[in-house]
Amino acid sequence: MILYTWTAVTSDASGRGGSVGVSDDSGRALLAAESCLRSGLARLAYVELVQTVISAHTLNPHYFPTGSGWWATPAVAGAVEWVRYTDQETAGGLRALAESAGWGPDQSDAAMSERG
Question: pLDDT tens digit string along 43-61?
Fold first, then answer.
């Protein structure tokens, strides 16, 4: 099953906080992340395609990132323009930035339990 996880990295100077979510629709994921950018609550947002996988050891579901998605930052006039990426290097950089803001794998897995 393909899903779309979204992450909005905070604009707070402390670098803490942000928002994350998961949706079965790319348009809804983009809109959710974009609302954080437009409101000024985030300085960067990205949406990544993920596949659901089941852990063989625990039978718990997990999101397996595909390395493909979109990223955006707010423009001066408040517009948001999404840029498509399809490489693991860009995806890894975006995930590292989110983790440095306090949204590491443990936090995002727990926060993304709700589907949008």
Answer: 889 999 999 888 788 888 8
